[in-house]
Specification:
Number of domains: 2
Largest sheet: 8 strands, mixed
Structural class: alpha/beta
Low-confidence stretches: none
Number of helices: 10
CATH class of the largest domain: Alpha Beta
Helix content: 25-40%
Radius of gyration: 23 Å
CATH architecture of the largest domain: 3-Layer(aba) Sandwich
Number of strands: 16
Mean pLDDT: 96
C-alpha cells in the first residue's frame, strides 16, 4: 500500500482528531463545539471559512493557483442518540449520545485532507470546497443546497467517503450507478372503532387491519416492482392498545420505504402511489379509515461513471492492483444523494472493519467502532482524487 509521506506525517493528528470528536458527540443541529473546532482548524490553513450553514455546518474554500472547476469534498458531523458500550479510552463522554456511524472519522479525514491539499494549492487548477455537513441523519444536505453551498463559486463535481465496518480495512468499494438507497419515512394511523374483545363484531379492529396491511404491502416489492430494481418496505414500530380485552380505537405504524434506483419519469404509477393504494384498499375492506404521512428523505445515491473512474484510478495507485477494490451497494441511505442528484459525483466506501481487533459491529450499534488504520486510506483517497480532478 502506498500512502504519501504528507498523509503519513499527519496520521497521528488525524487519529487524535477522530478520538476528540468521538469523545464529544453532538446530535444533528447541536454540533456547535464540533463546528467551532472544524472552523478554527480550517482558518489556520488560510482557507476562506463560512459557518452557520444549515445552523451548524461549516464550509472551507481553498482557491487554487490557477482558475478552473470547483470540486466539493464532504464529511458529515452528527452523532446518534445511542448509549455507547465500547470499552475504549476515547469513549463518548455524553450519556445517550455516540458516534455510532463513523462520522467522527469522516470529519477527521477531511480535515487531514484539507491540511495536505492546502500545502499544494499552487498545483491546483481550480478550487476545493470542504463541506462539513450537520444533521445528515435528517436531510441536512438539502438545506445546505437551499442556502447556496453549491454556489459562489459554483460546484462542478462532488466526492465523498463513508467508512464502512462491513468491509474489512484495506479494501475499498467503488461502484458506478446506484450504491445507496433512496427513502421515504412512513407513518400510518389506522382508525377503527373501539370495543370489547368478547364482541369484536361491534367494533372496527385496527389491529387486524394493521396485520393484514403489513403483509399486503410486501407484495409491492415482490409482485409489482421488477426484482432487478430493489425495493424494501419495512416497519420498525407498531403501537396500539392498552390491555388484553379492549379493541383500541387506533393503531400507529412507522417504517421506511427504500429503493435502489431512480424512478423513471412517466411511470404509470409511482412507488408512493402504489403504497397508498394498498393502504386505502386494506382499510376499506375492514371499514377502517387511515391517515398517511410519507416524508421524503432523499433520492437513491447514484454514482457518476466519470467520477468513479477517477476514484478508481486513485485506489489503483494506492494499492497497486484491483484486488483491493470491491463492488458494494446498500439499502442504507445517505443524503449525499442530494448532491449526486444535481452534479457528477462519486461516493465510495472505505473498509473499516477488523475482526482480529473485535471491530465487527454494524453501524448504529452501541458497540460500533472503526479500525483507525482506515483513516489514512480515506485521507489519501480524498487527496489523490482531488489532485487528479484539478490537475488538468
Amino acid at each position: 500500500m502506498e500512502i504519501s509521506p504528507e498523509v503519513l506525517a499527519i496520521n497521528d493528528e488525524v487519529i487524535a482528531l477522530r478520538r476528540h470528536f468521538h469523545k464529544h458527540p453532538e446530535l444533528g443541529h447541536e454540533e456547535f463545539q464540533t463546528a467551532e473546532k472544524v472552523a478554527d482548524f480550517l482558518r489556520k490553513l488560510d482557507l476562506e471559512v463560512k459557518t452557520g450553514v444549515n445552523k451548524t455546518g461549516v464550509v472551507g474554500l481553498l482557491r487554487g493557483a490557477e482558475s478552473g472547476p470547483t470540486l466539493m469534498l464532504r464529511a458529515d458531523m452528527d452523532a446518534l442518540p445511542v448509549q455507547e458500550e465500547c470499552d475504549v479510552s476515547y469513549r463518548s463522554t455524553i450519556d445517550g449520545k455516540m458516534h455510532a456511524c463513523g462520522h467522527d472519522g469522516h470529519v477527521a479525514m477531511l480535515l487531514g485532507a484539507a491540511k495536505v491539499l492546502s500545502d499544494q494549492r499552487d498545483k491546483l487548477r481550480g478550487n476545493i470546497k470542504f463541506v462539513f455537513e450537520p444533521n445528515e441523519e435528517d436531510h441536512g444536505s438539502l438545506v445546505m443546497i437551499e442556502e447556496g453551498v453549491l454556489e459562489n463559486p459554483a460546484v462542478d463535481a462532488c466526492f465523498g467517503i463513508h467508512l464502512w465496518s462491513p468491509i474489512e480495512t484495506g479494501k475499498i468499494a467503488i461502484s458506478s450507478g446506484p450504491v445507496m438507497g433512496g427513502m421515504y419515512y412512513i407513518d400510518i394511523t389506522i382508525i377503527g372503532r373501539g370495543g370489547h374483545t368478547a364482541t369484536p363484531q361491534t367494533a372496527v379492529d385496527p389491529i387486524l387491519t394493521a396485520t393484514e396491511m403489513v403483509q399486503a404491502l410486501q407484495a409491492i416489492q415482490t409482485r409489482e416492482i421488477d426484482v432487478l430494481t430493489p425495493t424494501s418496505i419495512v416497519f420498525g414500530k407498531i403501537k396500539g392498545g392498552t390491555t388484553w380485552n379492549i379493541i383500541p380505537e387506533k393503531v400507529e405504524l412507522s417504517g421506511t420505504l427504500r429503493f435502489l434506483y431512480q424512478e423513471a419519469e412517466g411511470d404509470q404509477e409511482k412507488l408512493t402511489d402504489r403504497f397508498e393504494r394498498v393502504v386505502a384498499c386494506i382499510c376499506q375492506s375492514h371499514r377502517a379509515e387511515y391517515e398517511l404521512s410519507m416524508i421524503y428523505g432523499h433520492p437513491a445515491l447514484v454514482n457518476d461513471p466519470g467520477m468513479i473512474a477517477l476514484a478508481r484510478n486513485s485506489a489503483l495507485e494506492i494499492f497497486g492492483d484491483a484486488g483491493h477494490i470491491v463492488s458494494y451497494m446498500s439499502m442504507a441511505g445517505d443524503d449525499f444523494a442530494e448532491f449526486a442528484d444535481r452534479l457528477p459525483s462519486a461516493y465510495i466506501f472505505v473498509g473499516a472493519g477488523n475482526n482480529s481487533k473485535g471491530i465487527s459491529f454494524p453501524h448504529h450499534h452501541p458497540r460500533f467502532n472503526i479500525d483507525e488504520d482506515s483513516l489514512q486510506i480515506g485521507v489519501e483517497m480524498f487527496v489523490r482524487t482531488a489532485l487528479k480532478y484539478l490537475s488538468g
